[in-house]
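Let us work through a complete example step by step.
Step 1: write down the sequence.
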Amino acid sequence: MAVLLTSFIVLMILGCPIAFCLLCSGTLYFATNNMAMFMVVQRLTEGANTFTLLAVPGFILAGNLMNSGEVTDRIFDFCGKLVGHVTGGLAHANILAP
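Step 2: predict the structure and record it as C-alpha cells.
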C-alpha cells in the first residue's frame, strides 16, 4: 500500500496529469504484489459492475430523446412563465423543470 501512495504522490509532485498518476501507481501496485493478470481484469470489471452505474446510460438516452423531441424547451418555457417574474427566476425554473 505504501508503494501505491508514494508513487502517486511522487508523480503528482512531478506534475503528471491525475489520470496518468492513477494509472501508473495502480499498475505499479499490481506489479509489486505479484497478482495474476486475470485477477487485475476481474477487479477492474467488478468495480464497473455496479447497479448505480447502470442508470447513467438510461438518463443520457432520456435526455437525448427529450431534446430531440423539443420537450425540454416546452418544459423550460412553462417553468419560466411560472417563476420568471421572481428574482432569480431562471434558477427557480431549473429547479421546477425536472
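Step 3: interpret the result. The CA atoms of residues 6 and 25 lie 8 Å apart.
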